[in-house]
UniProtKB/TrEMBL annotation:
Residues 1-31 form the signal peptide. PANTHER family: ALIPHATIC SULFONATES-BINDING PROTEIN-RELATED. PROSITE patterns: PROKAR_LIPOPROTEIN. This is ABC transporter substrate-binding protein. It comes from Georgenia deserti. Keywords: Signal. Residues 61-265 form the SsuA/THI5-like domain. InterPro entries: SsuA/THI5 (IPR015168). Pfam families: NMT1.
Length: 353
């Protein structure tokens, strides 16, 4: 039988001074350029952003890049970025009014919407899977994970959904393993110490794991088996989007500028991402090649491709990561308006391969 238990794992030491688990980033400036997001009184729009991991990953560092390079400031926006435990926690926070914008993998967002939450996805971070299932040397096949302790965040959150996908592909289910709840910065140490037998790792975490224990190895590349699966979404309460169209458009514009800079100016963004992820610049530089060249994980334009979202919803139904009996109308869940307005103003960029 599947079991879920909580194991407190000690994370690896922070490699450099950086931004703590709860990050407050503020910009106090008059709106410049388009002035898209400013309040009616001329001051900057205030946006509290929640991210789904205790330590920001490369995958959702785009908002930090946008902040550090002044793109939010240009849009008349002041942001406060908070790090939570999982996408489920983020969804609860947005629905509860603690945050204006949430970043999470698509699964908890879809399930919150299916449960009656009045929210919309209006932008995305890394929307292509760039993660791998990493395991110790004695695991050479998915079947070798039977009866072992596998690291996840929470049932229904991103890493559990990806683990379930790998198990399903091998004809297994979560009932064949034991789930262990692990904090986002403790997967590598858990693998190195032998406390878990698998973890879904982002590229920078994978490089870190290999450096600490060369016997750890990727068993499954999720992008290779699921290239059409949609990953990271930014979402907000519908009432906030309706009441703050300029702020939503300004957020989308700043995000799009950040994505384009991340592709075009490697040397400029690597130090920013290394700082927020608390990793060495050499590790982030290696990870940049995976995110920005191999996978091309971030959209350069509107993103939110309908065919990929439809496919992902079907996969969630197949894997039973979508609440039983839930009906999801993507036309109601997805609001492309802010991104379309942002791209119209910035101009269309070259599409990803």
């Amino acid at each position: 039988m599947m079991s879920t238990r909580v194991l407190t794992l000690r994370g690896s030491p922070r490699r450099r001074g950086g931004i703590a688990a709860v990050v407050g980033l503020s910009l106090v400036a008059l709106a410049a350029c388009s002035g898209a997001g400013g309040d009616d009184d001329g001051g900057p729009a205030q946006i509290r952003i929640a991210l789904p991991t205790g330590v920001t990953s490369f995958a959702n560092a785009d908002v930090v890049v946008a902040d550090e390079l002044g793109y939010f400031e240009d849009a008349g926006i002041e942001v406060e970025i908070m790090n939570l435990r999982s996408g489920t926690s983020v969804a609860n926070g947005v629905v509860g009014g603690e945050f204006e914008v949430g970043g999470a993998s698509i699964e908890p967002v879809v399930n919150a919407f299916a449960g009656g939450a009045e929210i919309s996805v209006f932008a995305s971070y890394a929307d292509r899977l760039e993660v791998e299932l990493v395991v110790p040397e004695d695991v050479q096949s998915v079947e070798d994970l039977a009866g072992r302790d596998l690291g996840i965040q929470e049932v229904g959150a991103f890493r559990e959904a990806m683990t379930r996908m790998v198990l399903e592909d091998a004809g297994m289910t979560p009932n064949d393993v034991n789930y262990v709840s692990v904090s986002s910065d403790a997967y590598v140490s858990g693998l190195v110490q032998g406390q878990i037998a698998s973890a879904v790792l982002h590229p920078e975490q994978g490089f870190q794991a290999a450096a600490e224990d060369p016997s750890l190895h990727p068993l499954v590349n999720l992008y290779e088996i699921e290239p059409d699966y949609f990953y990271g979404a930014y979402f907000a309460d519908n009432a906030w989007l309706e009441d703050n169209p300029d702020a939503a458009r300004g957020f989308a514009q700043a995000l799009t500028r950040a994505h384009r800079t991340m592709y075009a100016e490697r040397d400029r963004v690597v130090p920013i991402i290394a700082e927020v992820t608390s990793m060495e610049e050499s590790v982030i530089d290696d990870a940049w090649e995976v995110y920005m060249q191999d996978v091309q994980a971030f959209p350069r334009n509107v993103g939110l491709e309908e065919n990929r979202l439809e496919y992902t919803l079907e996969r969630m139904q197949q894997m039973e990561t979508l609440a039983p009996g839930a009906e999801v109308d993507l036309a109601e869940l997805i609001d492309r308006g802010p991104m379309e307005a942002a791209v119209e103003e910035l101009g269309e960029a070259e599409q990803r391969e």
